[in-house]
Design brief:
The protein is built from 11 helices and 13 strands. With about 325 residues, it is α/β, with parallel strands linked by helices. α3 packs across α4 and α8 runs parallel beside α9. It binds coenzyme A. Coenzyme A binds next to α2, α6, α8 and β12.
Length: about 325
C-alpha cells in the first residue's frame, strides 16, 4: 500500500510588500535583499485574516484538484508555526470551516520542515488503512515579524499550500522519507515569548519578545548541510541517485542555500522549484506551493522522481522522495 499526492493547491494573500517598500521601513536596499536572499517581494495577510483562512483556500483548491469533497476526508493535519491560537488547533478550525466530517484533526509544529513532517505522518496513517488525508502548510509569519529588524523582516511572507494524500496499490507516491532534529540549536531561530517560558506581559511586549528572532548566518551554515543530507538519505533509501531526480523542491529560505544544495547534488537550477523571489520564506507553506506551481506549469509529469527537502526552526530537517 503506497501513499500518493492526488491533488495540490495553494493560496497567497493579495497584498504585496516589495523590497522598495522595505527600503522605506529599515536601513536596507533592494540590491542587498536580492543578492543576499534572492527575494524580490512577499505577500502580507490582512490584520483580520487568520492563518486558518489561508489554509481553507489552499485546501479547497487541493480538494478540487484531487476531485474529492470535504466529506471524503478522513484526517486533517496542519503544519504551522503561526496558528490562529494556541488552542483549538488550526486543523480543528479548518475541519469546521471546510464542513468536513468529525475526523481526526491536529497541528504539527516543526518550523519550516513542518509540511514534510506532516506528509510523513499522513503516510503512516495511509499505511494503517486511512485514505484522503488533507495535509496543509499555512503561515502568517508577517504577524510575528519585527519590522524594525532588517535581518529578519526582509525574509518572511504569508501563504498556504495543501495536498491530498491517497492510498494506492500502484508503484507510485512516497518512495522514502528521512527526518532529523537537533534541539540544541533552538535559540538560533525562535520566538522567545508568548508560551510558558515567558508568558505575555507588558515587559515582554515592550522588549519585542513576541517576534521571530534569528541568527541568520549561523542558521545558514547548518541549513545547507541539512538539506543536502536530507536529499542524500532519501535517495540512498530508495536506491536512487541525484541524476534520477526530475525535480527538486527545497524549502524556500534563501536562494544561496537552494543553489548550494542543488550544486552539491549536481541538479541544474532549471530542475529546481523556486518561489521565494515572489513570496519570500513562507515556512511550512513553501514546499506545497512550489509543488502546486510545478504541477500547474507542467514541470512535473507522471512517473517523475521528485525530491522534497526542508530545514527549519528546532532545528528540524528532512526529505521526502516521490514518484509522481
Ligand atoms: N540590509 C542590509 N544589510 C543587512 C541586512 C539588510 N536587510 N540584514 C543584515 N545586514 C547586514 C548585517 O548587519 C551585517 O552587517 P555588518 O557586516 O556591518 O555587521 C551584514 O549585512 C552581513 O550580515 P549577515 O547576517 O552575515 O548576512 P548574510 O549574508 O548571512 O545574510 C541572511 C543574512 C539572513 C539573508 C542569511 O543569513 C540567511 O538567509 N540565513 C538563513 C535564513 C534561514 O534559513 N532562515 C530560516 C530557516 S527556515
Amino acid at each position: 500500500m503506497n501513499a500518493y499526492i492526488a491533488g495540490v493547491g495553494h493560496h497567497v494573500p493579495d497584498k504585496v510588500l516589495t523590497n522598495t517598500d522595505l527600503e522605506k521601513m529599515v536601513d536596507t536596499s533592494d540590491e542587498w535583499i536580492r543578492t543576499r536572499s534572492g527575494i524580490i517581494e512577499r505577500r502580507v495577510s490582512e490584520p483580520d485574516i487568520p492563518t486558518s483562512d489561508l489554509a481553507i483556500l489552499a485546501a479547497q483548491r487541493a480538494l478540487k484538484s484531487a476531485k474529492i469533497s470535504p466529506k471524503d476526508l478522513q484526517m486533517i493535519i496542519v503544519a504551522t508555526a503561526t496558528p490562529d491560537m494556541f488552542f483549538p488547533s488550526t486543523a480543528c478550525l479548518v475541519q469546521a470551516k471546510l464542513g468536513a466530517r468529525k475526523i481526526m484533526s491536529f497541528d504539527i509544529g516543526a518550523g519550516c520542515s513542518g509540511w514534510l513532517y506532516a506528509l510523513s505522518v499522513a503516510e503512516g496513517f495511509i499505511k494503517k488503512g486511512y485514505d484522503n488525508i488533507l495535509v496543509i502548510g499555512a503561515e502568517e509569519l508577517t504577524k510575528i515579524t519585527d519590522y524594525t529588524d532588517r535581518s529578519t523582516c526582509i525574509l518572511l511572507g504569508d501563504a498556504a499550500g495543501a495536498a491530498i494524500l491517497k492510498r494506492t496499490d500502484e508503484d507510485r507516491g512516497i518512495l522514502s522519507t528521512y527526518f532529523a532534529a537537533d534541539g540544541s540549536y533552538g535559540d538560533l531561530l525562535y520566538m522567545p515569548a508568548g508560551g510558558t517560558r515567558m508568558p505575555p506581559s507588558h515587559e515582554s511586549i515592550d522588549n519585542k519578545m513576541h517576534y521571530l528572532k534569528m541568527q541568520g548566518n549561523e542558521v545558514f551554515k547548518v541549513a545547507v548541510r541539512a538539506m543536502y543530507e536530507s536529499a542524500h538519505e532519501v535517495l540512498k533509501k530508495a536506491h536512487l541517485k541525484p541524476g534520477d531526480v526530475a525535480f527538486l523542491i527545497p524549502h524556500q529560505a534563501n536562494i544561496r542555500i537552494i543553489e548550494a544544495t542543488a550544486k552539491r547534488l549536481h541538479i541544474p537550477m532549471d530542475r529546481v522549484g523556486i518561489n521565494l523571489d515572489r513570496y519570500g520564506n513562507t515556512s511550512a507553506a513553501s514546499i506545497p506551493i512550489s509543488l502546486d506551481e510545478a504541477v500547474q506549469s507542467g514541470k512535473i509529469k507522471k512517473g517523475d522522481i521528485i525530491c522534497l527537502v526542508a530545514f527549519g526552526a528546532g532545528f528540524t530537517w528532512g526529505g521526502v522522495l516521490l514518484r509522481w
